[in-house]
Amino acid sequence: MCFRIPFLFTLLNLSVISAFGDDFIFPLKSEGNITFYADVYQFMNTQGGTSIEIGYSVSLGQFFSPQDSVSNPAQFSINIAFLNTNGDTLAGVKEQKSILSDESAKPENTGLFIDLKRFTLSADTVQFVLEIKDPTHDMNGRINRKIVIKDFSQAFSTSDLFFASYVQKITGKSNFEKYGLSAIPNPLRVFTYSEQTQNIYVYFEINNMEFSGTETSSYSVNYTLTDLIGREVALFNRPAIKKNSSNCARFEMIPLKDLDHGLYLLNMNVTDLSTGKNITITRYFEVYKPSQNNNLVLSMTDNDIKMYYEQIKYIATSEEKEIFRSLDMRGKQEFLFNFWRSRDPVPETETNEFMQEHFNRIQYVESKFTGGMNSDMGRVFIQYGPPLDIQRQFSSTQVNKPVEIWYYAIEGKTEFIFVDRSGDGRYALVHSTHPDEYQNNDWKQVIK
Question: Is there a domain that residue 310 lies in?
């Protein structure tokens, strides 16, 4: 296996991003050979239950090939279902779509099919399935995720954040209506700055604030934007908004003009000033500015991307790995620049000592260990470096298989015990005294 060391000396540091415990902090992306994106929005339903809105977008160019006749429309189906733990359908919809191969649907253009579907469900954990099929070209894409349906009926709460590409007054019937306005969802959450698109619109609802109707009371809305390196780039305050009821709906407008090309974290905080209760909602979105220099420096084929992920998987946090998987090619390149730069112990010099040592370890395990970096020994060596001491046992009265014990000076003395179970030279980790590693004090008995 060959590992390329990219040129990574020009961009800023990437700080560690905290886990927020929210499955939908990123948009959902389909698996399969039809690519589409979906966003899940939950709102309080005043008639009971919870309103679930599913916004999704799919590029129409995927449904045409050069061999297709211009006069023949593409046929594809859309299936949305919510299932309980027994597999029974609680709610759903099935539709057939037909589109013509006009200019807006060609692959080189950006024709998108955007839709929004609404459902009402009771608080529970359900399986959400969204599937798009194109039988003509034998293609399909699928999203299959668990959703915890929230109960908004009692406590102070907010809905999910609904990202809209633009908002306008309704001139007729609109499937995208939000209190008299048509809000076109952006399930991908990528916003391209232009003369026509200068703002991001974020819709959300606030539920169960304290409100008597006889006394004036207020709530506040504050939100911040931070970039990939954890730097706060924008702060907006609405310190005292008068309440008209215990529930309200809001649009917040985020200007795109001063935001650079890249990924941003939106932290939206709402406080009921009568009680002091507050809640924060967090979502990622991306800004694309075609006028900026977005040229790729790193090769970004599918194999390259897999290789870059392999290179960082043992040293990146789970949040960083999730971010990397969610980004487009330019975003992945920027992420890699920032990832390595953030770990440079002496950023004033041209040499990134951490990166150099990391790739030296990768090259070592690829040449020395059966299984390379995908072996247990390879992972431990990459994460913790070379051991201070190694004890080898080829057989004993208790264990008749080759054993290696690696010793590290971690919190005193730490052991990693590996056993060649199959005699093929691939040593498996069977026990460690490291608190974050696999532990089995009865490993000898198990091996025996």
Answer: no
Residues with pLDDT less than 70, the chain: 1-23, 66-72, 100-110, 228-229, 291-297, 348-351, 395-398, 448
Handedness of CA 16, 21, 27, 33 (dihedral sign): positive
Q: Are 25 and 145 in contact (CB under 8 A)?
A: no
Q: Range of 393's domain?
A: 369-448
Residues 39-80: tens digit of each pLDDT: 999 999 988 789 999 999 998 888 877 666 556 677 899 999
Structural domains in the chain (count): 2
Q: Are 144 and 38 in contact (CB under 8 A)?
A: no
- The answer as to whether 391 is a domain residue is yes
Token couple for 348: 């004033």
- Tell me if 377 is assigned to some domain: yes
Q: Phi and psi at residue 132, in whole multiples of 5°?
A: -120, 130
Burial of 36 (0-12, 13-18, 19+ CB in 10 A): buried
**All residues at 6 or more sequence positions from 202 whose CB lies less than 8 Å from its CB, including other chains:** 161, 162, 163, 164, 251, 252, 253, 254, 266, 268
- Write the pLDDT tens digit of every residue in 282-339: 998 988 877 555 566 677 888 889 999 999 999 999 889 999 988 888 888 888 988 8
Go through 217-233 and write b for each residue having 16 or more CB atoms within 10 A of its CB, e for each that does not: bebebbbbbbbbbeeee
pTM for the full predicted model: 0.66
